[in-house]
Design goal:
Layout (H helix, E strand, L loop, with lengths): L7 H5 L3 H14 L6 H14 L3 E5 L2 H11 L7 E5 L5 H8 L3 E5 L21 E4 L11 H11 L2 E5 L7 E2 L2 E2 L6 E5 L13 E5 L2 H10 L4 E3 L2 E2 L10 H10 L3 H19 L13 E2 L5 E4 L3 H10 L29 H6 L3 E4 L7 H14 L2
Parallel strand pairs: 2-3, 2-4, 4-5, 5-8
Antiparallel strand pairs: 1-9, 6-7, 6-12, 8-9, 10-11, 13-14
Helix pairs in contact: 2-8, 3-8, 4-5, 4-7, 9-12
Length: 366
């Protein structure tokens, strides 16, 4: 058996005609940016999230960067986040001119350890940027309480959390604003790059729309120093075709995760821990074992492809050396990144494929 980590061809086949027809229509009209498909997607995905406003942008990194800029966070400011995430989270902060300040992660969920935030707050702290990693939300109520008491903004990194819920609220509606990624392998993915910003703040939404289009509210009138960060019409066609199926795909991922949990419960691997009150969407299904590298190599021999998200914490990346962090600064993060392994996870995954993955893991451990 050959099991891909993500198999995009399986998802594409049922929508091929619809997507190609939509792309052909765009090309016939040659309205390629911020046209009817982008405008419709902004309304539709915002409605899916339960947000009042949506802004389509070029990618998830830029989504976070624009939010920071719109909140006037820049040089001399600090933003509290985590080192266990894709580097884009920290890049967005640095590109805005601010400094990322890291806290460690919870050893069970691998998400931001909210209890460590308050100790990192200084007069320069302007925001907290929780990362809803793997499709599970951070424990937001205590985080919001800290932010409220200290007058801080809350920016959600929801790049892996399309439809994830926390106590009945969807990711992207809990903080001041949220950034999503439509990178091709996400629960809702473009055929290339794409991103999205959600917010319930009308004034903030208007400012972010301008920032994504060279700071312009009207053609050739530039009120802000902005970016070229527009979502294109072709990607919007793809995303609109997929969006009506996202809720069902998320349910299938939850079902796959439960099957993995059941089949792996008597093995030495640690399966995902879910925060009380959360309803994850399992962008990734991440197990943990001290024999991670050996297990990954064995699974590859069995035709099973896996991933590691992420092997090197941000604070130990060469590019982040100027921040001054060292080995040992975040012990849980550093320990976890040596043990985690992402198993195949996508909506179209078949039960017999999940069973084969689980059986192969059992065989590895004897």
């Amino acid at each position: 058996m050959n099991i891909q980590f993500v198999d995009l061809r399986k998802q594409y086949a049922p929508f091929k005609k619809e997507i190609l027809s939509g792309i052909e229509k765009v090309l016939d009209g040659m309205h390629l940016f911020l046209g009817e498909n982008v405008q419709a997607l902004e309304k539709e995905f915002a409605q899916f999230c339960g947000a009042e406003h949506g802004i389509g942008v070029s990618d998830g990194t830029t989504a976070l960067h624009i939010i920071l800029r719109a909140l006037d966070i820049g040089p001399g400011d600090e933003v509290i986040t985590v080192s266990h995430t894709f580097i884009a989270t920290a890049e967005a902060i640095i590109l805005a001119g601010a400094k990322p300040v890291f806290v460690d992660i919870d050893p069970y969920t691998y998400l931001m350890d909210v209890s460590q935030i308050e100790a990192k707050i200084t007069p320069r702290t302007k925001a907290i940027l929780p990362v809803h990693l793997y499709g599970q939300t951070v424990d937001m109520d205590p985080l919001l309480d800290i932010a409220s008491r200290h007058g801080l903004r809350v920016i959600e990194d929801a790049c892996q959390a399309h439809g994830s819920e926390y106590k009945g609220r969807k990711a992207g509606t809990i903080g001041d604003a949220a950034g999503f990624s439509f990178y091709y392998s996400k629960n809702l993915g473009a055929y290339g790059e794409g991103g999205f910003i959600s917010t319930n703040n009308s004034e903030l939404a208007n400012k972010m729309r301008m920032l994504r289009d060279h700071g312009s509210g009207a053609r050739y009138h530039h009120d802000l120093i902005g970016l070229n960060a527009r979502l294109d019409e072709i990607q919007a066609v793809v995303l609109r075709a997929k969006l009506p199926h996202l809720a069902n795909w998320n349910d299938l991922r939850r079902s796959h995760a439960q099957m993995y949990n059941d089949l792996l419960k008597d093995t030495p691997v640690k399966t995902p821990s879910v925060l009380a009150g959360a309803n994850p969407v399992y962008h990734l299904y991440v197990i943990s074992t001290p024999k991670r590298d050996e297990l990954q190599a064995y699974l590859k021999e069995q035709g099973i492809f896996t991933g590691i998200h992420y092997p090197i914490p941000i604070h130990l990346q060469k590019a982040m050396g100027f921040l001054g962090y060292r080995n040992g600064d975040f012990q849980t993060t550093e320990e976890v990144t040596g043990k985690i392994l992402s198993l195949p996870m996508y909506a179209e995954l078949a039960d017999d494929e999940i069973a084969y993955v689980a059986e192969s893991i059992k065989k590895f451990f004897g």
